[in-house]
Amino acid sequence: MTTEKGTISINTENIFPIIKKFLYSDHEIFLRELVSNAVDATQKLQKLSSLGQFNGELGELKVKVSFDKDKKTITISDNGIGMTAEEVKKYINQIAFSGAKEFVEKYQQTTDKSTIIGQFGLGFYSAFMVAKEVEIITKSFQEGAEAVRWFSDGSTEFEISAAERAERGTDVILHIAEDSEEFLDEFKLEQILSKYGKFLPTTIEFKEKTINNPNPIWVKAPSELKDEDYLAFYKELYPYSEDPLFWIHLNVDYPFNLTGVLYFPKIKQDFQLNREKIQLFSKQVFITDDVKDIVPEFLQLLHGVIDSPDIPLNVSRSYLQADGNVKRINTYITKKVGEKLAELFRDNRKAFEEKWESIGLFVKYGIISDDKFYERAKEFILLKNTKNEYFTIDEYKTKLESNQVDKDGNAIALYCNDLNKEDAYIEGALKREYDVLILDDVLDAHFLNALEMKVEKLRFKRVDSEPLEKIIDKGIKAEVVLSEDEKKKVEEVFKPLIGNNIVQIEALPVDDLPVSIVQTEFMRRYTDMSKVNGQANMMPLMYNLVVNGNHPIIQKVVTEEGADLAKQLVDLALLSQGMLSGKDLTQFIHRSIERLK
């Protein structure tokens, strides 16, 4: 064939600086695009063979990536479908460049560059992000086809000529520009290939080594897989993580295409430090691990992969576009997770309870952030008490009906955040045959608020938020043995010891503590929610000093020992709440020793 030269008709002097500057936020993506194109070429040949439209030998279909540091070239080779001279003109010059023209027009009209939809066929031209010259040497699979060379220096001019190539397929040769020579590095190229091509469906070879797994488990039917396959794949994704609790295999083809595997990891209380993320693929090409629009917020601590060709991306494939499919996928994932959790709960409740420490964080986060999820989750939300017994919401409401209902008909669920710090209060509740829940997750303050809004006549109160007789107010009036003068005297003795806080004299059983410190449920929840939200608590620490007016020791405060005894009792109450430190703690210890002499 004769050499042919030409110019692409585009209304701009040079489209490539625009592509290089605005189209791709990360220049390493050129390798993803070109390798993906090469894989597509092998997949198309395989498809033609299966349809009987290619009867030759397929051989081992693969893509090879190589580089030459001296010649400053990177080459992406495949033995796929190849192109004739006419196809080069059509696909490289006409379709891709017309896509480029459309891109420029839309680019000039829009102010939000991230919203330009990726349907311009510009993948090949990402080569010019790193190359000053690009050549293609290709030979079509068609019988009698001749090899063709295409060349461009990044301007709108091109050259097509005859070439030497014995076998079908395509070589894309990049002559690397000076400002991109960092890519002429074995470690960097292997790192990029591993990142974007780890699960491409055709073998990717680099330095005579296969760097990908072409058949990851998410492209297989669940019936083909065993537990050990899912666990082995998890280790492939996250080599240093503990085994997951369980997993969900996603597989849907209508109204959108989506496959994947989501794993529930073991989550600790410091779950915010977790750095493993769900990985998004499109036809086995890695796109991003920022899946906030696809996966509901409360499930973004899951691990695993999602693969969908129907997720719209902007032209650089770097940002997701919000559209109907994304919303439907989000809803589908929420539904599948809800169904899986319900199935686990029904099939083996004991095993579900054993996993609740981790599962509970997802469920609570879901209830806080997604009203619809609550409807799916209400049957398997669990509450655990200090005896390590588990209850669903309905079961627990029934349990409370016998002894923990206030005068207004509200079931009052007592809870603690810290078994050790609140032990004295828990003991007091258990003496009255009350039940106490353990709610020590970081999300529990928000979780309790959500439940109180959704479950009628159920209230949660921390076991040390008020005297128990007030927490569960049954309308029974108890009397204090102190006279009015004695009450006044008690208040006068204690008030100077607690600053702006409140002295609260209560008629409590004689075997309750003489003095205790309580903080209202509102104040505790406000403080806890501020911590979770990463906000500083702007309100000063306020508490009530509850004086048991029926305790014999309080009679002594009224009489001979007065202020010294009161100080000791206040310090004891502060100490029990972890609020006594420094010189105040030292002085308390010295006073206590003196009293023992």
UniProtKB/TrEMBL annotation:
Cell membrane listed as a keyword: no
Amino-acid positions noted as binding ATP in the UniProt annotation, renumbered to this chain: E33, N37, D78, M83, S98, G99, Q119, F120, G121, L122, G123, F124, T170, R317
InterPro entries xrefs: HATPase_C_sf, HATPase_dom, Heat_shock_protein_90_CS, HSP90_C, Hsp90_fam, Hsp90_N, Ribosomal_Su5_D2-typ_SF
Keywords from the named record: ATP-binding, Chaperone, Cytoplasm, Nucleotide-binding, Stress response
Entry superkingdom: Bacteria
Domain Histidine kinase/HSP90-like ATPase: from-to ranges: 26-166
GO molecular function terms attached to this record: ATP binding; ATP hydrolysis activity; ATP-dependent protein folding chaperone; unfolded protein binding
SUPFAM superfamilies, alphabetized: ATPase domain of HSP90 chaperone/DNA topoisomerase II/histidine kinase, HSP90 C-terminal domain, Ribosomal protein S5 domain 2-like
Family named by the database record: Belongs to the heat shock protein 90 family.
Protein's name according to its UniProt entry: Chaperone protein HtpG
Source organism (scientific name): Leadbetterella byssophila (strain DSM 17132 / JCM 16389 / KACC 11308 / NBRC 106382 / 4M15)
